[in-house]
Amino acid sequence: MSNPTLDALAAQVTRNTDAEASAVVVLNGIAGRIQAAVDAALQGGASAAELAPVQSEVDALKASSDALAAAVAANTPGAAKA
Q: Which is nearest to 54 in space by CA: 30, 22, 70, 78?
């Protein structure tokens, strides 16, 4: 016999995990697109110093994404722990 409270909790954990995993994908996509623009600008003659503020933001997005991904993995039942 299932417990409605535990079933509701499990369903909410699944919804949260799915949403958090989707956020990781979005953050990685944004960071990847900005990084591609930085790389193109460097190839086009911009200097690393000129692009440092943008690169800093890319690095911050990646760090945020990594932290979120680690939290999702650590709190997902049955997920491999990194």
A: 30
